[in-house]
Structures are given as C-alpha cells and as structure tokens.
Amino acid sequence: MEISGEIVPGVGLAGIKIGQTLEDIAIDRRSVKSISGQKLAYVMDGSVCILFDDENKIRQLSALSGYKGKLNQKYYIDEPIAEIIDDGWIYSEELDGFIKQDQKGVIIRPDLEDASPDEIIEQ
Question: Which superkingdom does the taxonomy of this entry point to (predicted)?
Fold first, then answer.
C-alpha cells in the first residue's frame, strides 16, 4: 500500500484495487469492523477507508484526509473545495458531494470545515 499512490476512478488507490479480497491486501481481519451492516476498514493511519461486500471483496475505496495521492495528477485530498468548482465539478444533492461528467465513480465530499456548497457557489 502506498499513501501517495494515484487515485484511479473505478480501479483503485494506494495500490489497492476494487474487487481484491481482504486476503489480497494483507490486512489483519481484526481491523475490519461492521458498522450499520457494512464491513469496512481504515488503513494507512485512517487516510483510506475500504468498504467490503458480503464476499470480502473490496466494493469501494475512499481517500480521506492525510492521503497524498492525486486524482488525474491534479486534484488532491484536503484541497480547498473552491479550487475544484472552477474546474467543472458540480454539486449533487442526491450524492451529497461534487461530481464531474468525465470522472465516473468519483464523488468529492467537502470537509465539514469548508463552506457549504451554496456559500461557495454564491461567491
């Protein structure tokens, strides 16, 4: 696992790939928790969240604060949300995050410390 590995939509991040199993990524089974019926694990000091399906295959990966990799060699975690809005990202109420047509499977969710989407868009 690499804390600065590229974020590749629909493929993976940190050297971890969607579809791999718990055994493939060699993390301790005890680090997988069940929360609200979903199995997940936080790795790399909490900078990556892994969501597993019922067969212990990776279904979703989330890069969180502290992750150093970039999406498209451009966007990075902890970047001010106002920076991405100017690049064609739009807010989706349904998904509770910013999406972009050419970035299928990617949702950028603002940090609670960022301004609300309405405040950013009004500026």
Answer: Bacteria
